[in-house]
Structure formats: C-alpha cells, structure tokens
Amino acid sequence: MADKKLVEAITSMNTDFAQWYTDVVKKAELIDYTSVKGCMVIKPAGYALWENIQKQLDSMFKESGVENVYLPMFIPESLLQKEKDHVEGFAPEVAWVTHGGLNPLQERLCVRPTSETLFCDFYKNEIQSYRDLPKVYNQWCSVVRWEKETRPFLRSREFLWQEGHTAHATAEEAEERTIRMLDIYAKFCEEYLAIPVIKGRKTEKEKFAGAEATYTIEALMHDGKALQSGTSHNFGDGFAKAFEIQYTDKDNTLKYVHQTSWGMSTRLIGGIIMVHGDDSGLVLPPRIAPTQIMIIPIQQHKEGVLEKAEELAKILSSFRVKVDSTDKSPGWKFSEQEMRGIPIRVEIGPKDIEAGKCIICRRDTREKIEVSLTQLADKAAEILETMQKEMLERARAHREAHTYTASDYEEFVKTFEEKTGFVKAMWCGEQACEDAIKEKLAVTSRCMPFEQEKISDTCVCCGKPAKKMVYWGKAY
Amino acid sequence: MADKKLVEAITSMNTDFAQWYTDVVKKAELIDYTSVKGCMVIKPAGYALWENIQKQLDSMFKESGVENVYLPMFIPESLLQKEKDHVEGFAPEVAWVTHGGLNPLQERLCVRPTSETLFCDFYKNEIQSYRDLPKVYNQWCSVVRWEKETRPFLRSREFLWQEGHTAHATAEEAEERTIRMLDIYAKFCEEYLAIPVIKGRKTEKEKFAGAEATYTIEALMHDGKALQSGTSHNFGDGFAKAFEIQYTDKDNTLKYVHQTSWGMSTRLIGGIIMVHGDDSGLVLPPRIAPTQIMIIPIQQHKEGVLEKAEELAKILSSFRVKVDSTDKSPGWKFSEQEMRGIPIRVEIGPKDIEAGKCIICRRDTREKIEVSLTQLADKAAEILETMQKEMLERARAHREAHTYTASDYEEFVKTFEEKTGFVKAMWCGEQACEDAIKEKLAVTSRCMPFEQEKISDTCVCCGKPAKKMVYWGKAY
Fold first, then answer.
1. B409 partner at 20 to 30 Å CA-CA among A322, A425, B228, B250?
2. How far apart are the first and last CA of chain A?
C-alpha cells in the first residue's frame, strides 16, 4: 500500500550502505547540510530524537548523583598544553580563535574538543578538602574537532554530546565511577535504543589521550562495521598532577584527586539508523521515538473519518501520538511514516469505523494487526513493548551472526576477506601487532571485552603467548 | 538563629549594590570565574536554575507550535556580511576562528553571536512553496559576544540562551508571531520568575541590527536600574531579500518570506537575583527554585530526629525537597539555605516531634509558621503559592514606587539626579534627543510601552510636539 516514490528515493542498503545512510538522514529529514563545511543542521525530527536521548540519559545520571554545570567553550592554549598526552592527541584537530572583535588576542583560544583541561582548572579552585569530594559533574554542550572526512552524526566538525568529569578521593572510587557510567551507557543503549553492546577496555593504542584506562561500549551496525558508542575514562591522578589538584585528607596530608570522564554524543543517532533501519527508511525504537504512533485516516473526506481519527488520538494520548490529516494520499502518508521510522501506524477508514476496529501496522515487521477500538490503548501498549523487545533481540541475533572467531593469522585474514563483522581473536598485548593488523587489514582492536574467552593460546598476529581476547573490526 | 559568618561574607546591598551582586553569585555558588577572561563556570546551583527556566519556557514554546533544531556554531564571514545592518551591528564584537587544526582556513569563521544568517541560509534551501510555511524553529545553545566589560549572567563573552527564528508567508503572520512570543516571555517572567515587566517597542536607535521592529520586556531591578529581559524582532522581508528566501504562493507567484527572531538568556538569572535578593543572599521564586524546601533537623544527634526529617521529606515528596543532614550547626545550615534562596525551610527537633509539629520559615518574609505534622504537605503548598504571589506583588510595588514622570527637561534631569528608576516622559521621535539624553544623563530609552499615557504635549528634550511616551532609565 505504501507509495513507491518516496521509497525509491533512497538507495537499497545492500546496493550501497553508505549511500543508503546518506539518503535516509536526508529523506527522514534528520539533518541538512550547511555552508559550513563539515557542520550540519539537526532538523526537528533529528533534534527531537536527541531530546529524548538527553532526557532519559540525564535522568539516569541524576539518579546516580550527577549534577549538571556549564563551562566555557574556549580553552586558552596554555591550559590545553598542561597535560602532555592530552595536547598531543587533540591539538592537531582543534579550531583556533585568534581575534576577538577587531583585535588579535594575546593568547589564542581553542574551541573545546573536550573539556578535561577546563574542568581541571575549575576543580583546582573548588577542591581544598576531603569534604569537597567527590565532584560528579556533567555538561551538555557542543564540541568541535576539525575532522577531514565528515559524515552526518558519525563524524562532524561540531557535534552535541554530554561530558561527565569527576574528581574523587581515591583510585578505587574513581574506578568504580568509571565502570558505573559505562554500565549506565550500556543499559541505556540496550533498554532504550535496542542496541546491544560489548563492554570492554580499550588497548593502550586506542585509549583516550591522557587516560590511564578507557572503557568502551561497542555496537555492531547492519553492515558489519563497529560503532564506538560511548566511552568512560579513568585518568588516575595524571591530570591532577599536571594541574595540581590536591586536597587535604582527614589525616591532614595533601593528596592528589583521582579523576574520570565519560561521554556520549549525537553519534548514537547514527547508531540507531544503522542498527535498525531498512530499505524503507528509519525504524525507531518505541521508547526513544519522538512520535510513537501515527494515525492515518483512510478516505478522510468521508463523513466522520477525521473525527474518529482525532478521537483515537485522544484514546492514545498516553503515547506520543499524531494524526496525519494532510491532503496527501494514504499511500504517501504510509511512506512518510515508514521513512521517519514511526513505530506503529493506525489505519482507520469508513469500513473500520463501521466494524468498530482499526488496523495497527508495525514499522519493523510490517505485521498488520486488526484491533477492536475498545481495546486500542492496551493493544498499542502491548505492541510497542513487544516491538521494543524484538528490535533488541533482532539486533543481538544479527550481531551474533556476524561475530566470528579466528585462531591463527590465516583464519583471521580469511575471515576479514570474506566477512564483515566482529572477529574475536587472541592478542599478545604488543602495539606492534595492532599496528601490523591495522596496516594490512584496515581493522582495529575494538576492545578487550570484560567477558573474556580463550580462542587459542597464541597471538593471532605474532604467535607469541596471548594475553587477552580482543574484538577486532572495521569501525566508523 | 542564622549564623552570622556566611551573611557577613556579603556586602550589604545598600552599601554597594554591585559588590552585593558579585558576592551573592559567588557565595550562593551560582558561578565561578575561569582562566578564560569574561567567561564563567555555571555551577550546579546556577545551572539547575537555568534547567528549570529551560524546561518551563520550552514547554510554553512547544504549546505554541515551536520545534527545536540545532545549527552550527560557526558562521562564514561572507554569510555574516549578507545583511548590511546586521553585520555592522555584530562584526565588532565577534570571536574569529582562523585556523582548523594546523592549517589556516580559507575563509575565517565567526563564533555565532546570534544565528539569523545561518537560519536564513538554512531556510533558503528548506522553503520552496507556501506548503513549507510557516517555519517556527528554536534552538537552545550558547553564543559569543566579545564584550569589554563583563559581569556574571548580565554580560559575559559567552552566554546560554534560546533563539527562535521563524519564516512566514505574510507580514501579518510574522507580526503576530513576534507579539505572541513577547507575550509568552512576559507571562513566563511574571508567573514563574515573579518579575513584572513592561512590554513595549524599542526605538530605532535601540532596535536589533537588521530588524524592522524590536519589542522588549523591561524589568526594574532592586537598585532602580532596568534590565532588558527578553526581545522579539520582526524582520519584515529584509533578511529574505538579502538571502533570497522566496516561496511560490498559491497564486503561483514568487514571494519573499517574512521573518522573526526572539531570545531569552541566562541574563534572566541576574534578574532573579537583583529583583528578589536581600542582604542574606538569594531569594528564589518557588516555581523556579531547584530546591523548594530544605528540611533542617535540630539536635539531629538525638534519637529519632534524622529519621523524622527523612519521613517529612517523604511526606513532601511532591515538592523539590532536601534534608540537610550534614554535621554543620543548625545556624550555619539556616544561613546556607538563606544564602541559596531556598523558598522555605522546615525546622524539626525533639520538642517539635513530641508536640507533633514543625516550624516552616519563609525565606522572603522570614515569617515563622507553626505547622501540625498532619497538615504539613497542604500547608507547604499553600505557603509556597502565597510566597510566589507576594514576591510578584512586592516586585510590582517596588517598580511602581520607583517609576516617575517628568513633563519637562528640568524635571527630567532633576528626577534622574535624585532617583534611580523608570522615568516616563514624552518624546518627539527624533534620535537626536535620545542621543542628547544619553550623553547628558547616561540614560537610554528602554521602550515605547504598549500602554501609552500622555504625560505632556511636548518632547521632554527638545520641546517639539511629542509622538510617544517612553520609559527612560539606566540599564544593565
């Protein structure tokens, strides 16, 4: 029944996944390109998704004791340079402000690529005594990284995110907070975005500039490529030493604080698209969908149809519901609802009204369910819940089907030649092997998962004794 | 009962209002200064206020059909220059990005001081037909203006705000939206912030760079100075012509759109402080206060006191309530609650528990009310409501008591020499008179109020026939 025109406007995902993605973000009206290279407009449909992500994550943060703050978007060059590894990691990709009004600045400022240095400068003044700890602050803001290659949501020169920055009295407490935030991220991805994730630790090569340990959640996209979906860093006392953030402990001695940071961004929207989308467009998990139900009247010019549609909207008012009463054809409206990924549509026409029923159509399975109008709200709730659950299950099954193991180098190479997905393989712990693998196969270590398995005894690259099982993959 | 130390840390408002303000923003822990000159950290207590402002305003916006979007923070220089008046108004005070990573940019980018030009560039692509109108978009973001003199919340180089930008088919519709948003701003200030405002139109001299008409809401602070608290601009088709934003109307002819923009910022927090604060610190209107009720246990080491305090918190859980169970003295806790402006505190000690009562103390009047524990929730609701209402009434009475009239120049000068407040006086409509008044008295025209009165027949400055009654004042 869906109109073909809108659907034909997007490339099939099996033909060209990258083009499919670009088509979907445009046709589902999530973004628009701008005159500013590498920066995008997030349109209402895209921003409403981000608002729902924010709302849910923010409430999970607050439940765990996080307070929100706002720090400046500018970092003086001298401040950025205080932590050696950090500046090396970020300086090549920051935007520099050199003039304020008509005058050159005495010291140039970079637009924050991340705010560790600013938080350190702030905490240095805020923290004097053990009574001032812990500090568990977060900010919602935009950051800038001067990327060469950009893609909407996945990699853009400016993006929206949250960045949490904490300071603790002990190393144990910092580690506990690092893992706690990773757990919140994983829970959020699975329960709200229906995206299953692998929790693990990054290798030294892949960790955040300045961190002692970086933990990550890694998700697998429909095309078999990995998406790093959230990271949580334990800095130990490295930044504290560089910035001299000390507190007087109960025993009256001066000690360095232990710090963490953790972030998630609009990149998650790219993940939602690439995990759940299909050739008709977006498929949004019900819990995060800005509109959960679209009511589409059939033969709406006939008496009573539009009124009935509005009446159903009232019955469904505990959901995020809309009626499409525009003068477009039902087929076109179906296509639009499908393109935008609205989880369920309710079709209601004169015959349905007469029979006291309507049709509910699920976006993911396209299953059509005849529902008595007296049971509509209950049935809608049930279908949305089932859909949320099955979307996660399907994504998990897809990931399992695209997760491979390799015991030796030959198998490793062959798997990556023939398949795209995660490959679980053993690693000796040396960066030389990671470098070699990256150079030859263009894949990277995604993480050393918390759930370790023993695939073989030796490193898949060099054959030396293995230390860790690693998830390898091509990544966005 | 309140401990003197914390209170003594702030200057009395009658001694030095500016210093009092600076002391309050620091001691109430709203902000901290940073290494970035003119930029501040908004700390948890300050940011929670902004979150409540955002939440309420955003819901009022959405009720009136506004959709949220996000546009880039950078504006290419050539784009900023497209509208002549606009660039003249803003170019002297923008921050310029000249390098991305290690390379100089081909065209420098300014950090948005406001986003009219970006929205125009966006709308130019989005709008083709009358079917695409109206566009009623808003964004919550930070903007940068390279001010020389800065003060926390009132004028800083970076501040948080919302900026709405709309495009309409007709001039009437644009004007209607401009006024509608001003009305929402006024309603929000009065009903939520307990700040009464004067609605009116800015003179040509004071209007926004590029606008056809700027409307404003002006509030009077405790020290008699005015605060421009929100503005709404009607651009007519000026920007549309500069950016060539045209649509095909129903009659198949090409027409220019008519645009508006409107904004409110973290400056509102400065307004709350300066309208309601006193020598003990902040006084927050209950509807916007992050914490509405602070429960302070007396003799908390005695058995059952802390438990009872927690029990009361549960009874009061429909409010934003906290228990201060730290090991500080009750007097110190009182001072902190007062400094932070928490609307009411509940005092509960062993004797109160025995008598089945507690004491509620209002932050604004310091009135102490004995309340039976069985009636606590009802009574708290009633007191918070009364407080909200009386704060607005008091602010209005203060404004009325500091609003003067002047019929001629002598009276005008004398009033400003002797008083600080609004002076209502007639004006001929010529900028020369505004310039002369500003030069001699350092006051500006705040607005031509919608509610016009006739103070005299002639301009208070030049004596020529008067066209408008104007509110004059010293402004932040």
1. B228
2. 35
Structure-token pair, residue A156 = 């853009």
pLDDT over 70 percentage in chain A = 98
Give the model's confidence band at B6: pLDDT under 50 very low, under 70 low, under 90 confident, else very high.
low
Q: Which of A451, A444, A448, A460 is nearest to A216 (CA)?
A: A448
pLDDT higher than threshold 50 for residue B1 = no
Burial class (CB in 10 A: 0-12, 13-18, 19+), B8: exposed
What is the mean predicted confidence (pLDDT) over A390-405?
Answer: 98
**Which of chain B's residues have a Cβ under 8 Å away from the Cβ of A167?**
none
Chain A contact for B142 (CB, 8 A cutoff): yes
| Model confidence band, residue B2 (pLDDT cutoffs 50, 70, 90) | low
Burial of A189 by CB count in 10 Å (0-12 exposed, 13-18 middle, 19+ buried)? buried
Tens digits of residue pLDDT in A197-237: 999 999 999 999 899 999 999 999 999 999 999 999 999 99
CA A266 to chain CA mean position, Å? 6
Report yes or no: B324 and B296 within 8 Å, Cβ to Cβ: yes
Instruction: Provide the pLDDT for residue A7.
Output: 63
Q: Could you tell me which of B361, B469, B375 has the C-alpha nearest to residue B424?
A: B469
Q: pLDDT per residue over B182-225, tens digit each?
A: 999 999 999 999 999 999 999 999 999 899 999 999 999 999 99
The CA angle B30-B230-B162, to the nearest 5 degrees, is 70
> What's the CA gap between B322 and A471, in Å, rounded?
46
- Beta carbons of A34 and B99 less than 8 Å apart: no
The pLDDT value given to residue A198? 98
Rounded to the nearest integer, the mean pLDDT of chain A is 96
From the list A451, A434, A456, A454, the residue with the least C-alpha distance to A443 is A434
CB spacing of B35 vs A76 below 8 angstroms: yes
Residue B272 reports pLDDT greater than 50: yes
Contact B30, B43 (CB under 8 A): yes
Provide the H-helix boundaries in B12-76: 17-27, 44-63
Question: CA of B469 to nearest chain A CA: how many angstroms apart?
Answer: 36
The residue in chain B having the minimum alpha-carbon distance to the alpha carbon of residue A43 is B69
From the list B43, B67, B72, which residue is nearest A158 (CB)?
Answer: B72
pTM of the model: 0.96
| Closest CB from B100, B146, B157 relative to A95 | B100
Contacts of B79 in chain A (CB under 8 A): 35
- For B62, what's the count of Cα atoms within 13 Å in the CB-facing half-sphere? 11
Res A87: pLDDT: 87
β-bridge mates for residue B254, sequence order: B248
Chain B residue closest in CA terms to A326: B131
A140 and chain B: CB distance < 8 Å anywhere? Answer: no
Instruction: Supply φ then ψ for residue B453, to 5 degrees.
Output: -130, 165
Q: What pLDDT digit, counting tens, does each position of B56-109 carry? A: 999 999 999 999 999 999 999 999 999 888 888 888 899 999 999 889 999 999
Nearest to B135 by CA among B213, B182, B69: B69
B7-56 pLDDT per residue, tens? 667 999 999 999 999 999 999 999 999 999 999 999 999 999 999 999 99
- Strand A357-362 relative to strand A344-348, pairing: antiparallel
Check CB contact of A48 with chain B, cutoff 8 Å: yes
B29, B30, B33, B37: which to substitute to probe chain A, counting the most A Cβ within 10 Å? B37
Residue of A nearest to B95 (CA): A100
Q: For residues B226 and B476, is the Cβ–Cβ distance under 8 A?
A: yes
Which residues have C-beta within 8 Å of that of residue B35, sequence separation ≥ 6?
A: A76, A79, A121
B258-265 and B158-168: which strand pairing?
antiparallel
Closest CA to A3 of A336, A437, A449: A336
